[in-house]
Design goal:
GO terms for molecular function: oxidoreductase activity. This is Short chain dehydrogenase. The structure is a single chain. The protein is 46% helix and 16% strand. By secondary structure, it is an alpha/beta fold. It has one domain: Rossmann fold (3-Layer(aba) Sandwich). A seven-stranded parallel beta sheet has the order 3-2-1-4-5-6-7, with helices on both faces. Helix 1 packs across helix 8, helix 3 packs parallel to helix 4 and helix 4 runs parallel beside helix 5. It is globular.
C-alpha cells in the first residue's frame, strides 16, 4: 500500500490517533497536511515527519468554523498542488456525566466540534473532490457511537451522528468516485489514557478481550487501508478497531 505523490489532509493531526495517522501516511509516501488547533504540537509533528524523510505542512484550523475547513483544502492545494484523500480525526470528549447533569455548554461544544466539524470538513473536501475526479475520506467515529456508553451522552450521540453522516455521504457520492468510510476505535492508548494512573490503565486493559488496549498506530493502519485504492470497492462502512470489545455482551 503506497501513497507516493498523493496529498492527504489530516484534521486533528497534532496528537494521538491523528498524529499516528499523519506519520504513517507520510512513511508510505504521502504529502501530509495537518490541520489542528494546537500550533506547537502541529509544528512538532511536521518537524518529526520531515526529520524522518517525509513531507508535511501544518495549518492552524478549528473544524467548527467553515472558513477554516475551506482553508485546509486550499492550503493542501496551494502547498502540494492537489488533495486526494482526507482523514477527519479532529474531535474531543467531555467529562463523565449522565444526561440529567450534563452541562448544556458541553453538549454544544461536543456537537460543534465532533459532528458539525465533521460535516464542515466533509463539505469542503467533497466540494473539491467533485471538481477533481473523486477522492477518499475516512471519518473518526467511536465504539461509543455504536453502543450506548454510560457517562458520555453528548460524545456518544455525536459519534453516532458521524456514523450516519458517513453512510449518507457514501451513498450520495458513490457515483462521483468519492468513497467515504469511518473507523470506530475502542480503548486506545492515546496520551489522554496514558496520563491515567497505572491501576486504572490495568483495569481498562483487563476489560478488553485481547487483554490490552490498542495503539494509535493500529487505528492509523486501518485509516490508511480505507483511504487507499486497496479498499477501492469499500464505501459506507464503519470499521471497528477495538480488539473484539463490541462482541462482548
Amino acid at each position: 500500500m503506497t501513497f507516493k505523490d498523493k496529498v492527504v489532509a489530516v484534521t486533528g493531526g497534532a496528537s494521538g490517533i491523528g498524529e499516528a495517522t499523519a506519520k504513517l501516511l507520510a512513511e508510505r509516501g504521502a504529502k501530509v497536511v495537518i490541520g489542528d488547533v494546537v500550533d506547537t504540537a502541529g509544528a512538532r509533528v511536521v518537524e518529526e515527519i520531515t526529520a524522518a524523510g517525509g513531507t508535511a505542512s501544518f495549518i492552524r484550523i478549528d473544524v467548527s468554523r467553515a472558513e477554516d475547513t475551506v482553508a485546509l483544502v486550499a492550503h493542501a492545494v496551494n502547498t502540494f498542488g492537489a488533495l486526494h484523500y482526507a482523514a477527519n480525526i479532529a474531535g474531543i470528549g467531555h467529562p463523565a456525566a449522565r444526561i440529567h447533569d450534563l452541562d448544556e455548554a458541553w453538549w454544544d461544544r461536543i456537537h460543534n466540534i465532533d459532528l458539525k466539524g465533521m460535516w464542515l470538513s466533509m463539505k469542503a473536501e467533497i466540494s473539491y473532490f467533485l471538481e477533481h475526479g473523486g477522492g477518499s475520506i475516512v471519518n473518526m467515529a467511536s465504539g461509543a457511537g455504536l453502543r450506548a456508553t454510560i457517562g458520555q451522552p453528548a460524545y456518544a450521540v455525536a459519534k453516532a451522528g458521524v456514523i450516519s453522516l458517513t453512510g449518507q455521504a457514501a451513498l450520495e457520492y458513490a457515483r462521483d468516485s468519492i468513497r467515504v468510510n469511518a473507523v470506530a476505535p475502542g480503548l486506545i492508548d492515546t496520551p489522554a489514557v496514558a496520563a491515567l494512573d497505572e491501576g486504572t490503565r490495568a483495569m481498562y486493559a483487563e476489560q478488553m478481550p485481547m487483554g490490552r488496549m490498542g495503539s494509535p498506530r493500529e487505528v492509523a493502519a486501518t485509516v490508511a487501508w480505507l483511504l487507499s485504492d486497496d479498499a477501492g470497492f469499500v464505501t459506507g462502512i464503519t470499521h471497528s478497531v477495538d480488539g473484539g470489545f463490541m462482541q462482548k455482551s
